[in-house]
Amino acid sequence: MDPDWDEVNRLPPPPLPPPGAGPNHDVQRPPTAMAFDNAQELLWVGTGGGRVTSYIGRDLQRYTAFRVQPTLDGPIRQFLFTDKGVIVLGTRTIHMAMRRGPTLWSLRHDDFKDLKCMCFTSKGTNEILVAGWQDTMFVIDVNKGEIVKRVPSNPHCYMILKKSRFIVAASKNGYVNILDPTSFTLVKTWQAHAAYINDMDAQGEFIVTCGASLKQQVQQAAQTFMLDPYVNVFDLKNMTSMKPVPFPPLAAHVRMHPRMMTTCIVTSQHGQVHVVDLMNPNTTNLRYANITYVKMFEIAPSGEALVIADGESSIHLWGSPSKIHFTDLAMAVEMPDPETKAPDMDWSPDTPLSSIGMHYYRDALFSAWPADILSDVSSRPAQRDINISSLKQTEWGYYGAKPKGTRRNQVEEPRKDKASEFLHPPKFLSEKARESALTSGLSAAAEIRAESDVDVPSGGELDSLKPDAPATYRNLEIKYSKFGVDDFDFGFYNKTNYAGLENHIANSYANSLLQLMHYTPLLRNMALQHAASACTTDPCLLCEMGYVFDMLQKAEGSGSTCHATNMFKSLSNVPQAGPLGLLEEEASGRPLAIMVQNLSRFLLDRIGLEYRSLPPASTTLEQSVFGLTQSPTPDELIAKLLATSATMTIKCVACKNEQQRPGTTFLHDLLYPAPKPTPRVTKTPRTTFSQLLRMGVERETSNKGWCSRCQRYQHLQMRKIIHSVPAVLAINTAISTIEHRKLWVTPGWLPEEIGVIVDQGQFFCFEGQDLKLHLQRGMHNITVYSLVGMVVNVDTSAPLKPHLVSIINVAHSEPTPPPESRWHLFNDFAVRPISTAEAFTFNAAWKTPSVLLYQLKTANNKSTTDWKTNLDTSILYQDLTSVLENRTCKVLEVDQEMPNDQTIVALDTEFVALKQPEIQMNADGERETIRPVSHALARVSVVRGSGEDEGQAFIDDYVQIREPIVDYLTKFSGIEAPDLNPQLTKHNLVSLKTVYKKLWVLLNLGCKFLGHGLKQDFRVINMQVPRAQVIDTIELFYRKERFRKLSLAFLAWVLLKEEVQLRTHDSIEDARTALKLYRKFQEFQDAGILESMLEEVYKQGRATNFKRQQAQDEVALHRMDTPPVPVPQETAAAAGPTTPLRKTGAAGGMLLGSASGGGGFGSVPGFTTTPGRGSPSQSR
User: Fold this and answer.
1) Do 702 and 717 contact (CB within 8 A), yes or no?
2) Of 178, 313, 773, 1132, which is the most buried if we count CB atoms within 10 A?
3) Where is the composition biased (Gly residues) (predicted)?
4) How many CB atoms lie within 10 A of CB 839?
5) How many helices (H) and strands (E) does the chain have?
């Protein structure tokens, strides 16, 4: 009750009968039954004379009135409500009427002697059970109004029936009987009160009763009855009695609060009202109604209204004047049509027939054609302005180029609104760069914005309310040019600072789930902390998730994208992934919603398993969230972060044998109520998300299974005893029927915040006003969760494919909490902000959630980067080379060479092809790339960029590839089949995880990567490197106005006078060459001649078609393999040069610089270059 609750209205007592009136006089009698309607704003009152009256709203305006039974038959006992009408129980009559008053059926029988109560059965609103002070109970079919079954009730006579999970019956001798709702057999009996039960209510798991006991007065030695000063409470779930709730004013009436599952309202006969929490009976909310004698009271289904009947037959309506209402989502009350007098007409020959009104009809008119015989016809095509002068004339007419927009064998659909149906793919970046350079006044960025403004639909209506999925929710396709995927304009689809994920790789349906986990701070921190540890397990999905999350964090600027290729490769290498249907190639036809739900369960289980394998790099964040003083163990962290600790109890119905086993889980499936037999069901009780979550967590089910004591299959009852809840609550929605979808489309049904209380093994969930009330009371240790986001299933009709997107509140992952929520729609690489209303609006036709993630509200905006300071770097100093004579690199020295943010390393990689490109000819006769070539990393070489060993490699790893290789690209990579064969290779062959971790450690130590054309290297490596950590020589020696980037071989030939890549490529050689070019760039920059030298380089390139020229006296040279690094020995000799030197001056002055300078490059002799800044050669 709110503090402003007070009496809002009052119905006066009925008038007294006139003098001499007999017992059959039709006069309004005192009320004997009251009930609030659960579908409309109506209050129903039954009187002692067998009449029923209804009143509308807080004003208690009289609505309908009708008689149920003769006056002499007695009073009205009870009301029940269905979607069709109201069921009224009299002493000898059962009557069903529409809410407007007309009778649907009325049942009267000789066996109806003294009926007292009724309730619904297991068939819902289609069947009721009627009982009274007689030896027979009756089962009534509500749809037919007939008795379908008789059930003997001897020796019990019932005065109150309530329907919960069982049928709860109060007998007239003080017992509470639990009846099976299907067979009506007796399940359990309690002695509630010594004499009789005055009132009883049941809801959910609880039964509350108040009654009287037999008292004996010593002086008069007479027996009297006195109300008990307490309320008895019984637990239906555990079938036990609970501690009574004390009520010193003597409890007369009791009701459970319809919205607060553990709260009851108790009244005394003199107007004292207590609002009591059953879980904490010592704290109550006391109110007092100025009423001399409380005869009965009822509470509305909304919990916002209370009606009390006093001893003077007045009816008092209580509630908050500002928000009193009877039921949530109430249907409009149908009011009678006002009588309108027909207008007088002056009939004459000139009166038009159209002024004569048509008669009323009930059947469909013949002119109302069914929709299946109607068809839409096309309209005229849009006219085009054609310039006749541009056409060419022939003997049969004129012809010209077809206007762009459709293919030559297609015509336009004139009725179709293209702008609202599809997002047209933008132009390629290469096309925009070329056009922007040729067009003045319009930059490429401005053109992107212009195209975006045209193609992206706008409007006030929510996209989720549209009948079909709009373009922003549909599956988007990446287009390819001859430059590959990097030429695609991802910025057209993403104007935010949040990176998307590319969807052109296998198993990319999981992109939405990865995005959701990334923006859950606790999950993201777990993955990064584990990736920063010394884990080298392959495959390790938690490490791969950490790498993906790190990429998403490092992605810079709007339109940035990443791809989870390595993550999905590792997923396909897990043996359990295929049988579980988590791989697209092995789950043909399986719905994506089921796949992502199975994947979420699988990933959470793997996280729990792999996180325990090694202690995390740091637990600072977890200690601050949970208030821990000491660093917890991995098992303790998993229990607090992910695990819902529970015990599963299994009980045999036949022998009552009970067993227990661990029931801890990382993810919960929502459990929906059992479907009703007919689609027309009552709206009460209202199903909330909190109820479904509680059912899903406790998982109380009944199945047939093997009983070890009975030694046969029996019905087993299973339920969970909950001990604790985690910081991250993962939920699968488990939507499978249209009834489930209808629940989700209810406005405001999914709460943005929930509160959870775990008490005595039970799980209680609250939302909305209930949550606010519990937080205000502060009586329980309530855990509040915030909704981070959800994975949403988008169903589209053919030919479009179903799709998954994620809707995420990125505000929870920001370092500082923003003033309001920031909901974003992540559709693979397309990211856009959406409103809160759009995020929480679902559509039964195409938009339903699949996975939800809730996180502790106190963990929002918690982030840490201490995993970088605790980064395990031991892998950089491990010498994994098995054969000493084949070493091509020298690992870093632990004490002397410690990489940091000032360290420069030269990088080069080699690839092999896993799939050949798919190319087709389009309708215009042009080559169109359907899917580009798929590369895999085959070799990685990293060279020192400074120090005494500058130019010497410290990483030279060949990568073991599990996928079939279609082309080793030996001409460009130098890789041959034996190099990647574990049995035949002579090189250091390692897993992809090992070489990736080395590069990832260097990246997070702040090292700067130097190379030539690193963009493609980073894409194949699957690594996101910030621009500040990239030194790319292809960009250093590039002039945008020249429209051409220079190759490494050409730059080496012109600037260094060296021949590289003569027969094939070698990654160490290319990395060293890039390092030399960088030193040459620094030399030009220091001398202030960079621009002039670049102009001269391009000039020579145009003269030689950007290819090296062989001099007449030059001998053909062959490139040698990378020489092995000698084993450290006192007598070891230095290795020879890798690249042969070109003769100086052979090109007749076309070559720049001089090769006659002395001094080697680092410790590898034979390199000739001008020492740059920071080079040790400057001091020699």
Assistant:
1) yes
2) 178
3) 1146-1163
4) 23
5) 22, 55
What is the pairing mode between strands 230-235 and 245-246?
Answer: antiparallel
Q: Which two tokens stand for residue 1143?
A: 């003769």
Q: Are strands 658-662 and 186-191 parallel, antiparallel or unpaired?
A: unpaired
Distance (Å, rounded) from C-alpha 870 to C-alpha 475?
40
Q: What are phi and psi of 138, to 5 degrees?
A: -125, 135
Q: Each residue of 31-61: b (16+ CB within 10 Å) or e?
A: bbbbbbbbbbbbbbbbbbbbbbbbbbbbebe
* Residues paired with 297 in a beta bridge: 308
Could you list the residues known to form a binding site, using ranges. 908, 910, 1017, 1070
- Alpha carbon separation from 470 to 476, 495, 591 (Å, rounded): 12, 19, 20
Q: Which of 722, 714, 677 lies closest to 696, judged by CA?
A: 722
Helix H or strand E encompassing 774: helix 768-777
Rounded to 5°, angle at Cα 675 from 658 and 754 = 75
Residue 1082 near residue 1022 (C-beta atoms within 8 A):
no
Distance CA 38, CA 44 (A): 11
- Write the CB contacts of 366 (distance below 8 Å, at least 6 apart in sequence): none
Query: 989 near 980, Cβ under 8 Å?
Result: yes
Residues 6+ apart with CB under 8 A from 487: 428, 429, 430, 480, 481
Query: Residue by residue, what is the 3-state secondary structure of 121-171?
Result: ECCEEEEEEEEECCCEEEEEECCCCEEEEEEECCCCCEEEEEECCCEEEEE
Contacts 24+ apart (CB under 8 A), 586-593: 591/793, 591/802, 592/509, 592/793, 592/802, 592/803, 592/804, 593/735, 593/793, 593/804, 593/848, 593/850
Q: Which two tokens stand for residue 715?
A: 């019905």
Type of residue found at 1144: T
Residues annotated in a binding site for a divalent metal cation: 908, 910, 1017, 1070
Contact 315, 14 (CB under 8 A): no
CA–centroid distance for 291 within its chain: 52
Report how far residue 410's alpha carbon sits from residue 414's, in angstroms, rounded to the nearest whole number: 12
Q: For the chain of 1180 residues, list the mean pLDDT of each consecutive stretch of 10.
A: 82 72 61 93 92 92 92 91 94 93 92 91 91 91 92 84 90 90 90 91 92 69 79 90 90 91 91 88 81 90 91 89 87 84 76 73 71 63 61 77 61 51 66 65 40 42 86 86 79 88 89 94 92 89 92 81 90 89 80 92 92 85 86 89 91 87 90 68 70 90 85 87 93 91 90 92 90 84 93 85 92 89 92 92 92 93 86 86 68 86 92 84 72 88 89 90 88 85 86 92 93 90 91 87 81 84 79 91 89 86 77 43 48 36 36 34 36 37
**Average pLDDT, whole number, for the chain?**
82
Quote the pLDDT of residue 440: 43
CB 513 within 8 A of CB 596: yes
Taking residue 754's Cβ as centre, other Cβ atoms within 10 Å add up to: 24
* pTM for the structure as a whole: 0.66
Amino acid at 288: Y
Query: Hey, how many other C-beta atoms are within 10 angstroms of the C-beta on 27?
Result: 15
With contact defined as beta carbons under 8 Å apart, do 728 and 523 qualify?
yes
Q: 717 is written with which tokens?
A: 């009852």
795's tokens: 């169903």
Listed in sequence order, the residues at least 6 apart from 904 whose beta carbon sits closer than 8 Å to its beta carbon are 945, 946, 1007, 1008, 1010, 1031, 1078
pLDDT per residue over 917-971, tens digit each? 877 776 666 777 777 888 899 999 999 998 888 888 899 889 998 888 898 888 8
Cβ contact 497:558 at 8 Å: yes
